[in-house]
Amino acid sequence: MAAQRAHLARPAPMEGLSALLAARAKKQTCEPKNAQELQEAALRLLNCHQNLSELLVEVRGVGNSEFHTPLYSCSSRTDDCEDSAPESFVVPALREEASVLGVPLGVLSARTAAANIEKISAESGNAVLLNAEQRKRLSCLVQTLKDLLAHNTFCRLLFAQTLWRMRSPLILELAWRLHRENILSLEKLLENHPDPSALVDWLSGSLRLLCHQAEVSSVDTETLQGILTDFGIVLLHNGFQKTSEIGKEVESHPILSKICCTVLEGMLAWVLDTAAKEKEENASTVGAVKCWLGVFSLTASQGTVLSESLQQFFSHNFTHVLTYNPQLKVSDAIRLQREWSFARNSSLLTALYQKLLVVLRAEELIRHLQQVLETNEVNWHHVLSCISTLLVCYAGAEQLVKDLLSHLLRKGFDNYDLESLITAFLIARQAAFEGPALFMPYSEWFKLTFGSASGFHGSSKKAVVLLFKFLSELVPFEAPQYLKVHIMHPPFVSAKHRPFLLEYITLAKTRLADFKVAIEDMGLYEDLSSTNDDLQPHCPALQDVEKAVQIFENTGKIPAVVLEASVFRRPYYISRFLPALLRPRLLPETPDLHMALIDALKRAEKIPPNMYSKFMEECQSVRGKLQHGGCPGTKTDDLKGPLELLKVELEALKGLVTDQSMQDALPAQIAVISEKLASVLGCRKDEDEAAALSLRIRLNLSAPEVQQQDQEVVNLLLTAFCRNVMAASYFSPPDRQGVWPSLFVKMVCGHQRLLSSLLSRLCQLICHQGPSLSDAHIIGLAVFVVHLNEAKSLIPEVDICSWVPHGVTTRGLPVAELWGHLLPCRTGESIVFCMRFCTAAVSYFLSKFSSFSHEFLCTSLHPGFVKKLQYVVPRLSVEARGTSCGGDVAEFPWKSLFCSAVHYQKAVLCLWKQTSFKKLLQEKRFKLTLQEWLLMELGVHPDEDALSASERQEFHYWALYQQYLPASAASGGCEGDLQEECAVLLSSILDFWQRSELSPCSSLERPKRSVPCWRGSPEIHFRLQEMLLEVELERRRAPPDSPLTKKHFLFRMLQRRRKALGPDAAEGERLLRQQELILQTRILVGLPPSFLITTQWKGKEIALNCEDFFCFVNTELKNVCSRGYVLSYDITAHFFRGLLSASLECNRPDPEVTAILVSCQASCPVLLCSAARWWRKLEPVLCCEWKRLFTVPLAQGLQRLGDQQRSVDSFLSSEASSLVSEVPWISAAFLHFTIQQQTACEKAGVLKRLGHGAEQILVCLLLFSVLDFLSARLDSQEGMDVARTLDWSCQIVRLLEEQGVGWLEIFCSGEIADRSLDQILRGALSDQHRKQLPVAFYSLLSTLHPERLVREQRFLPVAVDMYTQLLRLFMEGTAAVRVDPTEPEDPFAVLQAARQFLVQAIPQCHLGSASHLHQLQDLCGDLDPELKAALTNHWQPAMEEGSLSDDDLLLF
After folding, report:
1. Cα(959)–Cα(951) distance, rounded to whole angstroms?
2. Is the pTM of this model over 0.70?
C-alpha cells in the first residue's frame, strides 16, 4: 500500500506550493482547537501532490533571490510560521518520502538536492558561470539546505558523491557557491571524485574556460575573482602543505594533494606554453593567461594561506619554470639570448616573474636559481629572461647577479667544471643586454674578471688551460662581437702561459675571417658588447669619425684614441679611418668641425700628403659636377612562388626518368630541384653545412611530429619519388633505371634542416599508417629507404624515444638501424605490411645491384629486412617452413610486385626461393637467432593475430623443435641441447618484460586486451613450461652421480643472468637488478610450484632438497621483499604448495615436509617470517592441498605453525594467559603480525601480559618493530606510520628495561654479537635494512632516557659500532633518513645528532679494561679521530689511578 500511495502521489504536471496556497481564495477562520487538525490536513494535501525536487526550491521561491537573505522572507507570514516552516513542510515531507522508499532521511535529502544541481548544470551546458535565473534558483536551494543541515537531515558525503555521478558535468560556479555557503567544502567535494585523472581534466578545463570568460564585459568581476581566489587557495593549501611548528604534518588526503599539485602544474604549463608562442596567440588567450596569473597575487594577499605554504608553492613554481621543457642547447642560448631581454621577452613570462618576486625576495630567488642550475637541466630561455626581469624590476639585483657570477666562476675553476663557466658567461651577457644603467657591458665584465693576475683563472696552469679550452669550444658558436672582446681585452696570462693565449687568438681570428670580419677593421669606439654588428667594412670607421668629431668639438683637441691608433693600429688608421674621414664632399665656405679636425691632423702630420691632396682634388671635382636626376628602373618579373617552381621541376623529372635517352640530363635536373628546394626552405648551402656540424635528429616513435612549414614539402618530395619509381619500373627493371633514385635521395639528405621532418614523416607512414598504404606507396617508400641506407653517411645519428615521460631513449642510432623500430610485428595487419614492405625493399635491392658481388650485397643490404622476412614469411606461409620449398629461382620477383595484392603471396615465395636471397640466408649477419625470433613473437598480440590459436601453436612447434633446436649455434640454434633452448626462452621472456616495464605499450594500441602487452604471447610461456618439464624429467631419470642432479637447472639459469648484470654499486644498477629479481620472481610464480624444489635419493628413500631456492631467497629475493623481511604472498604460497607437491614422491611426506620447515629456522628464516605474515590466508590453501594429495593427517611442521597462530589468537583474546613458544622468534613473528592485523588490539596490555619468562619473545618483537620503523622511513608505500612504529618500539624497550633484560644485542654486528638467535634473525633482513640499523638505533636513543643505558657494559661498544656504521653509510651516500621525526630531514643533522649524543655519553659510561679501549678505538678506526681521542682521554685518568684492572669489567 505504501508503494501504491507513493506512485499515486505524483501527478504530472505538479503544482507548486505557491499555486496550491493561492488556490485557497477564501481564508477560513478556525477555532484554536481546530488549528492542529487544519495543519494536519494541509500536510496530507501536500504529501499527496508534492515533488520533492521542486519543493526544496519552491519553499524559498517566494522570497528574495539573492544569496544570504533570511529563509521564508515572505511578508505575509508571521514569525511563528517562519520559524516552523522547515519543520512543517520540508523535513516532514522528506521524512514521509524516506519512510516510503525505505532509505535514510539524510540520503534522500542529499539525492534530491543533487537532482536540483543536475538540472541547473544541464541547463548551463559547457559554461562555468551561472545566469541570473540559475543563481536565483540556487539561492533558494542553498537556504533550504542550510535548514536541513541545521536539523541534521542532510548527508554531505553522499551529496558530494552523487554530484560526480551526474550526467552533466558540474558547473564551476555551482561548486564554488556550495563552498562559499558552507554547504559542501571544495576539499570534501574534490576528495569524493571517483576518477583523479577526470577530476584533473575537469578542474583544469573549467579554470581555463573561466579565465577566458574574464575578457567578456558582462561577467561579474567580483564573482570571477572570488572563484579564482577560493579555488587557488584550496589547490595551494592541499597541494603544498608544510609541517607545523610542533612538527606534526597537517592531515590531508594524499590523492587530493597529488591532484591539486597536478592541476597547478598543468595551469603553469598552460601559462608557459602560451608565453612561448605569445606572438602567435590571439588576444583572448593572452588575456585569459593574465587572468590566471592574477591568482598568484590574490592568494598571496588573502592572508589565509600559511607563509610556509606560500613559500613552498612559489618556490616550486619557480623551479618548474626554470626546468620546464629544457629543449634548447647552449648553442641555441648563445644565438637567441638577445631576444630574451626584458624589452623583447614575452610579457606573460615577465609578469610571471614579477608575481614570483612578490613572495620570494630577490636573494631567495637568486639562491634558488643557483641551486636549480647546479642540480637540474634548465630551460635557458626561462633562466636568462629571469635574470633580465630581476635586473629591471629589483633595484639591488646587480650585486646579486655579480655574486652569482663569482660563485659560478669560482666553482668552475675550483672543480674544473665547464657547465658552471658557460652558465656564468650566459648570465653575464644576458645582464649586459639590459644596458649599462643596470649592469656593466660584457666587454667591461670580461676585462674586470680575467684582465688581471688576481682573476679566477690565475691560480694555476690548470685553470688557465681550462679557460682557454672553454673559450676555444665557444668559438664555433660565438657572434663576432664577443670574439672581438676576447681579442681586444684578452685574459691576463704569465709569459710561460702565453702560447695558450696566442693559440686562442689565432682561432678567434680565423673564425672572424669566416664572418668576413677582420680584427684590423674594428672601430676605435666600437661597442664590443653590441650585437648589432654591421659587416660593411666602412661602417665602424664612419662611426669612429662621428665620435672623433664630437670629442674634438667638446675638447678642441685631437682625441687621444685617434692619436694612439695612428701609431699602434696604423693599418686600420690608414686603410679605414682616414678614407672615412676624407670622403669627397662639397666643402662649406666656412670650415666646419669635420674640416677643422682634418686640418688639425694635417698640422700634426697624421695625414699623408698624397691622401690630403687627393681629398682636396676630389672635393673640387664634386663642386664642379652637375647633379643629374633619374635612375634606371628595375625590371620585375611576375614569377611563381618557390613551392610552385619546385613542383614544376619535379614534374619535369618524371619525364626524364621514363625516357632512356634522357638519362644524361637527370643529374642536372636533380641539381635544379635542389636549388628550388633550397629556395623553399629559405636556407643557403653554407648554413646547411654549418647546421650539419651539430645536427642530431630526435624522433618520437609514438607521436612523430612534422614541422608545419615542412609538411607540404616532404609530402611533395615523397609523392614525386613514389610516382617516378612506379613510372620508371613500368618501362624498365631497377638495374636499368640509372642512378636517379640514388641522386635524388642524396640530394634530399643534403638539405640537413629537412631531415628531421623527413624521418618523422616516414615514421608516420611506415609505423602508423603502413597497413592502409597502397602498393605504389609501399614500393616507393621501400625504394626510398633502400637508398637512404645507401646515403647513411650523409644522415646524422638519430635519437629515438617513446611517449613515456621516463621511457627508454635509444641514442646515437644510425639511420640503417632505424627501420627495425619502424616495422613492428604486433598485429596481423602490421605483420602482413612488414612482409610486403621488406619484400619490396629486398627485391628492389637484389634487382638493382644484381651485377654486384656477393660481398657487396652482404655489406650493403640492411640485415633487418632479411631477418624480418625470416620471421614473417614462415609464420604466414606454411609452404616456406619446409627445408626445401621448391627449387632455386634465378628471376627476381620485382615485376610481380606490381600485380594486385592477391598475388603478393606469390611474390614473397618467389623471393624466398630466389638464389641470391638463399645465399644471403647462409651468412651469419643475416641469420635470425632464436632470441631474436622469440622477442618478435612475444610482441604479437594474440587477440589481433592473423593466425588462430591452433595455427600459432603449430608455428611455435615448428620453430622451436624443428628449426632452432637441431640447428647449430652458428645458425642461431641450440645444437640439440634442450636446456640451452630453455635458457634462451627464459632469457628472452625476461628481456621482453624488461623492455615492456621501461617502455610500456604505445598509446595507439588498444587499451583492453585479454593479455596485457607487457606479458607477451602466453603460448611462449606454455612452451617454456613444457620444456622445463622435459628437462626436469631428464634430471629425475639421470643417475645420482650425473651432473644434472648437482644443481637446480632453473636457478642456475637465473643466477647466470644476475651475474651478467654485474655489481649493483650505483643506484641505476641497483634498480635494474631489483627489477630483474621482480621479473624472475614473476617467472617462478608462473611455473608449477614443484619446480622450486628438487628431489634426490638418500639411501633408499627420496628426500626433498630446497638449498637452491633457499640460496636464491637469502642472497637475492629478500632484498626486494616487503618490509625487508617478508616475501610476497605469491612466492610464499608458491613455495609451500611446491613443498607439498614435491613431497608426493617421498615415501614419508610428513617427516620430509617437517624436516624442510625445521631447516628453514636456521637456513632461511625469512620464509617462516613470511609464513607468519600470511598464515591466515595461507593455512586454508595448504590444508586443502594436503587433503587433496594425502590421506594422512597434516604434516607436523605445518600443524605447529597453525598451533602457533591459534596460541597467539587465544592469548590476544585473553583466553590464554601465555604463549606456546617452542621457537621464541617464530612466536614473536606470529604475535607481531597478528597484533598489526587486529586494529582494536591494546598493545600496551599485550606487553604487560607477556610478563616474565617471555624475554626472548620481547627482544624478537622489538627487532620486528624496529624493522617496521625502517620500512616506514624507507618506503612510504608500505602503509606504516613512522611515529607509531617508533613509539611501539620504545614501549617494548621500556618494558625490557623494567624487567632488567638487555636489548642491545639486536644491534650487535658480527664482531661483537654473541647470541645465535639474533644472528639468525639478522640473516632474514634485507641488505638495505641491515645497513639502516644504525639509524633505528639512534632514533630509539633520541626518545629514551639514556641514564640507565649508559651504565650497561654493552652500551658503549654497541653505540660506537652503530656510529661508525652510520658514518660509513653517509660516506656511501645511502643514509638520508632523519633520526628525529620532528626535525627537518637533513642528512648531516642525523650524523651530527648521533655524534653529539655519543660524545656526551662517553664520560658517563662504565669503564673497561685497556683491551676494551683498544677494541673501541679499532671500531672508530680512521673514520673519526676526534671520537677516538675522546675515548682515550676518558680512559686515561682511570688507568693512571689504577682504579680499574683488566679483570674488573668484562665487556665481551
Report:
1. 12
2. no
